[in-house]
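Researcher: Sequence recovery benchmark, item below. Answer with residues only.
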């Protein structure tokens, strides 16, 4: 059940076999990503123009994340922060729209999760799935692993555009939240199914439409 408490999932140590085959998941993701890219391409075009008009910087943001099998890939997003946002090194995003590094257009995109739309291309390429765990940078994975080495269990599946943990943990701006997210990701890994994925997709879509912060 999606409302499962953290206390009841902390005993998970080893993921069980998924009832869904990789072939089914991959076919589903290809079909949805192609359809979504066609439908949302006008929205992405408008956002690209607004981003360029605001500060003249790059439209897309590319960053190395770690995916299935521990292999790195370049995640794509609509750029929502200033060009110098991480000139002093990797930083965690602040919750909601309170991050001073956000541009005006970026704050709007973050509020409605529109900055994530280019990840449809990551899904089509096979770097990501629609449902999984949110991919992280190696810098922060190393810090998580210092506290809980079970993070490496997530490498069995593709990271997702959305996740069970995203719905209930939101942006991870502290190590406490990162460890809580890991517990939720491990719960998903052990319980993923067609219906569980459907619930996550529905709740994600509902959250976007209603403007829920997560």
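Model:
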């Amino acid at each position: 059940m999606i409302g499962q408490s953290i206390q009841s999932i902390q005993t998970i140590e080893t993921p069980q076999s998924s009832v869904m085959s990789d072939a089914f998941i991959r076919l589903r993701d290809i079909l949805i990503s192609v359809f979504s890219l066609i439908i949302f391409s006008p929205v992405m075009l408008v956002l690209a123009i607004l981003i360029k008009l605001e500060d003249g910087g790059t439209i897309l943001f590319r960053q190395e994340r770690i995916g299935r099998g521990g292999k790195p890939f370049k995640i794509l997003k609509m750029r929502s922060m200033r060009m110098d946002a991480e000139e002093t090194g990797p930083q965690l995003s602040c919750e909601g729209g309170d991050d001073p590094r956000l541009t005006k257009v970026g704050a709007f995109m973050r509020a409605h999760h529109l900055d994530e739309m280019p990840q449809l291309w990551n899904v089509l390429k096979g770097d990501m799935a629609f449902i999984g765990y949110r991919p992280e940078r190696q810098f922060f994975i190393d810090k998580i692993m210092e506290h809980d080495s079970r993070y490496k269990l997530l490498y069995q599946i593709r990271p997702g555009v959305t996740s069970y943990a995203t719905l209930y943990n939101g942006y991870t701006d502290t190590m406490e939240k990162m460890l809580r997210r890991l517990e939720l990701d491990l719960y998903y890994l052990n319980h993923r199914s067609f219906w569980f994925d459907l619930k996550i997709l529905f709740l994600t879509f509902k959250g976007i439409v209603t403007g829920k912060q997560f």
